[in-house]
Design brief:
This protein is an alpha+beta fold. The protein has four helices and seven strands; from the N terminus they run αββββααβαββ. Helices cover 33% and strands 29% of the residues. A hairpin with a 4-residue loop joins strand 1 and strand 2. The model has no long low-confidence stretch (mean pLDDT 86).
Length: 114
């Protein structure tokens, strides 16, 4: 299944949360074309939809480091877009202390998180 929009990426993350963590989603919002926000009782999930243009050839930019850590490519992030996504989490009503998790979803439905 190809994921083409941020709404599709948010649905994929929500399915993963429902299946694995039994957390109930309390808030879902599309921030722009590539960022979305999901909130549960315990955490905020900043979701980033990756396209083919978001990848960087890490091995060409940092060959020694890429060889040491075994990475061949990385993800390019915009500081401004990431800052706006983080500020959206600060506007969420927080009843308990929440953690913030960044989830990357590519077009094929693969997940990475930090």
């Amino acid at each position: 299944m190809k994921i083409k929009t941020i709404r599709g990426a948010l649905r994929a993350v929500q399915r993963k949360l429902d299946a694995g963590h039994t957390e109930k989603v309390t808030h879902s919002a599309e921030l722009d074309r590539s960022y979305g926000l999901l909130a549960t009782e315990r955490a905020c999930y900043i979701t980033r939809l990756l396209s083919s243009g978001d990848y960087v050839d890490f091995g060409r930019l940092f060959p020694d480091l890429a060889h040491q850590i075994g990475w061949t490519r990385g993800i390019m992030l915009s500081r401004q877009d990431l800052a706006s996504a983080i500020s959206a989490t600060r506007k969420m009503p927080q009843t308990v202390s929440m953690s913030t998790i960044m989830i990357f979803v590519d077009e094929c439905g693969r997940f990475s998180q930090i």
